[in-house]
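## tool: complex_structure
## caller: assistant
## args:
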Amino acid sequence: MTGGSPAGRGDGLGHDIVGFARALRGAGLPVGVEQTEAFAQALGWVDPLVRRELYLAARATLVSRREDLAVFDELFARFFGGPGPGRPSAAAHATPLAPRHDRSEFFRTALVAYMAERVDPSAREVEVPEDRKAASGAELLQRKDFGDCTAAELDAIARAMRELRFEMTLRYSRRLIRARRKGRLDLPRIVRDAARRGGTVAALARRCRKLRRRPLVVLADISGSMELYSRILLQFLHGVTQRHARTETFVFGTRLTRITSQLQIRNVDAALDHASREIVDFAGGTRIGDCLRAFDRQYARRVLGRGAVVLVISDGWETGDPARLGAEMRRLAERAHRIVWLNPLLGRAGYEPHARGMAAALAHVDDFLPINDLRSLHELAARLGQIPRRKGQGSGAGRASARRNTPALRAPCPHAPPGAPRSSHEA
Amino acid sequence: MLSREALTQQLAARGYIVDDALAMSVFLALRMQRPLFLEGAPGVGKTLLARVLAELFDTRLIRLQCYEGLDISQAAYEWNYPRQLLALQAHARAGGAAPSERPGTAAGLEATDELYREAFLLKRPLLQAIDAAAERAPVLLIDEIDRADEEFESFLLELLGDFQITIPELGTLTAKHRPIVVLTSNRTRDVHDALKRRCLYHWIDYPTLATELEIVRRKVPGLAEHLRRRVVAFVQRLRREELTKLPGVAETVDWAEAISHIGAAVLDPPTVDATLGLLLKYHDDIERVRGPVVAQLLAEPA
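## result:
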């Protein structure tokens, strides 16, 4: 396929090309046969013995994403020895590669230690007659805070989560599809029908705009204060990603990490294992404002188009500047269709969102919901399917009221009488 | 066919300055007849490159601006329905066998054949680009592909792979001269890998100080050299600030022109503050920079 160009000068080089392409693939660059061929072909037009020429030709044909430039440069240097003289590549001022510590190892040990503590025999449950225990076990688990669960209970919750059904809310795309009664005329179809009937227009075919599921963007806090919830929530997010293809997931503590592609792995254990390898700052401090800023600069334009719903999962313990967090939340609110803030502490008795970060953020949040037990997940799943079509409508926890300058918070009471909806913001 | 050096010079002669990496990508795209996929922030000159290429090869620029919901009827071709309907009615009235009761008979089929001829075809940009009647290859600019939906990308695959378009009623039309294709993306979403695989990808960054100086020198010849240096150095520093929208090259040129019109002798903070709206397009950004930050950026030693 080299099209008669004088490609592949010297077998050694041909060998190098294949090896280099393989190395790039190994590093995760999407380099297919087409690219490799294009590279070989390109060598017909440059002098492959001049390193800079070789570098430029390789870069033009083998790189197809900006974020791959850094890895590409590194591998090129290893294979052929430096990109050659010339202007430093764009990658030079892109983010450097994060060191890949084996975070999964750390994660696992921490988790085991934590679980061992949880199954402390002194915290044994009160004796309950066998039959009643079985009946109420499932019900109790629904309301048991993730932070208070034993390892076995967390397992049961993870299993129950798999049953969780949710449908993402819809929006009208601008694409047209066939419609029955409403919509504009479908002229192509009318003409085709008419041609079949010799010019008689018998019925008016119509088209209307197609309904699409909204994209979902998740920003989850995995800092130290969220430690009790991180693992189970990541499992939940894995389930969400599996069911809703248009999900983008990011986790943050002191820095932001995108784990979308890791969560797309089908097997939940493998997915979480890969994800935790990406994350460099498990259980550290929290700089929500800085992380939102990083999100805004690197990803927002790419993932917040098309009317995305944003879930922020955090307890709002900000170690950075709360004013900055507020400013970043405002920017996020401008771009997102709706912001749902999920706070595990909200389900706890007597919690008031006094953390300064939380208070600053709330002005820009549409829904403020707990996420601390199985029932709250069910409620969330139901809520995601009912987000109104118009922006910012409905149960605004803070955003709408913030415009009127009254910080109206509706922190739901965790000890509401049975039967009363716990997280009703609609009232 | 131009050499790489000649290409760089020819582009520069038309006011478009390229570094060696972009020169390589353009050169290879032309030689290998592959589409060029340009990604980068708004205002770094992605669209302009297509215009300059059209000028350079003295050929037509066919531009397709993408948007959400863009479909084949707007991008490639559409049948001229009103004319088709008229023709049908005329056919029926002229005593052509009225096939209304017997759809699918010979007469009915004949009428259908008559309707789907090239005369009834409206050629939209993509079809125009591979039109066999054209004398030479045009430049096809598919602008802001990230605004179109994923479905549209899959349609482009056929076009960019084989430079042909299949019209079910008419057959497959193939380009006699392969167009020079430039796709641009502002990266508001990721474009599918399958599409990128068919292209040569290039990320256009903001220009270096030297390149930007050269661009301003060519575009705004009326600006004194010491002011030009100040203007470009300021913009380059401004791009290091945390802003919602960094100023692109187009903004630099606009600003340089404004400074030249004002007839300012020096670039001082009041002048910059008064003209900041030409560089920054978000109120927040202007508020952030105006005053102390401007003064500080201006005071930085070159």
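## assistant note: Residues 77-120 of chain B form one domain. The radius of gyration of chain B is 25 Å. Handing back to user.
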